[in-house]
Structure formats: structure tokens, C-alpha cells
Amino acid sequence: MAIYLNSESKVIVQGITGGEGTKHTALMLKSGTNVVGGVNARKAGTTVQHVDADGNDVELPVFGTVAEAIEKTGANVSVVFVPPAFTKDAVVEAIDAEIGLLVVITEGVPVQDTAEFWAYAQGKKTRIIGPNCPGIISPGQALAGITPATIAGAGPIGLVSKSGTLTYQMMYELRDFGFTTAIGIGGDPIIGTTHIDALEAFENDPDTKAIVMIGEIGGDAEERAAEYIKANVTKPVVGYVAGFTAPEGKTMGHAGAIVSGSAGTAQAKMEALEAAGVKVGKTPSETARLARELLGG
Question: Which of 24, 50, 195, 254 is catalytic?
């Protein structure tokens, strides 16, 4: 099994004709994802040419709206590759069309725009992942985003991470075990799906035997996740927090990574997680070793 995304998912790409949309549509198809079309209002009625996982030519329709794409293809997942200035409109359109899963890859979306579309999504049918994230992959089943599909195959580990590159590294370190689903939630101050959402889904997934959670300095998401784990998660969890060497008060790479005093530091997050029974590695490789020990490898 997997969480949020599986072999039955039908994926469309908002921005399918742009440079990033074109490149990653090709990679998603190559990984076996069932990409069924795309959206670009200016190129509605045209098609784009690609090759599927079996090497067959495919002609994907381009629709004017997400609603039309869903009506014509039965799509239930959309991946957003549009410039930051237009991301909010693209997300609102997808929410209005009631797409089930919306993966927002775009980096540099204004925080106010994210706050507005996050608020707009509350109580509606769309689950948002991102923005500024690598997306989600259920190896051997489907990829919605930009995670390289060749790193690791299917297996018993669930991975949720704020960082894209650390998602890739952890998948590589644990490639001999494999993953049910790896989800990159993004490091912006406001995001859709959180660590807690993913932890809940992995806890409920019978094929996920252990969970790896990657956080980073700034904010209190990891502390809140620790409280949730303590109260609700019965499966073993291994954690890593990026930023142990970051100086206090300095804004780091991700927009959410701001450290002030002891709140939001890697040490504070590690202590909160360890208090919840989570084994925390000081490096990604140590974290992978802890996961191996849990899984008997």
C-alpha cells in the first residue's frame, strides 16, 4: 500500500507546456505514473508528445481548466509547475475543481499567497502538498513531483521530510529496504500537508512498518509532531533534524528556518522527539543506521 498516491492515481500537470512541466512530465511518465493530461489555458485544445514507461509514444491533451481536465480524464491528482506569481490562482482553481491531491512544486511563492490558498482549502476536498517541495513518490506505483524515481524501490519505510535533498539522500541510504511512500512536505513557513498529517497516514497504512521523519531548524513543527507521536503513533519512528551547526538568529536556506534563542533549534527539536521515544540521528547516515536497526538490517 501507500499513502495519498498509488498506481490507481490519475495525474494531470498544471503548466505541462512549460520547461519544468515538460521535463518532469516526461520523468513522471518514465517512472510509470499514469499522467493523463495537462492544463494551460492559452494552449487548450492542443496536445503534447511524450513517451511512457514502456517506450510507447503518448499524446497528452492540454485542457483550458482543471475542471475540464477532471471531467474528461477522471484525474484525481494535479502537480503544479507554474511561476510563483500565478501559483495562488492555479491552486484556487484546482481546489474549486475538487481535485483530491494537489502537489505544488513551485519555489518562491509569496507567503501571503500560500496563507490565502491554505485558508481557502480548509473544509474542502483537496489535500495540498507543498509549496516549495519535491512532491510525493510511492515507488513502483506513482510519482507526483520531482523526486528521482530511480533512487529506491518499494518497501516497508514511510518517509516524511521538510527537505527535498535530504529526502533523496535518505531514500538512497535506505534503498535496500525501500519505501511505501516518501513525501517531501516543503520547508516554507506555511505548507499544506504537515509532518503530523503524514505520520497519521503512515500509522494507518498496514504496509508501513517504520517511519523516518526529517525536520529542520525554525518553527515548532517538529515539537508538535513529537507530541503527536507520543499520543498517537505506535510504529517506530526515527528522526533527523537538519541544522545542528546553524548559528542562533541567522536565517538559513529554507524560508522557514529561522532560529531565535533556544526555540526552533535543532537541539530543542531533538530533545522533544527523543522525549516522545523517537531515536534521532545527528547525521542522515546515522539516522539511516538507526532505521536499519529497527528493521533488523
Answer: 254
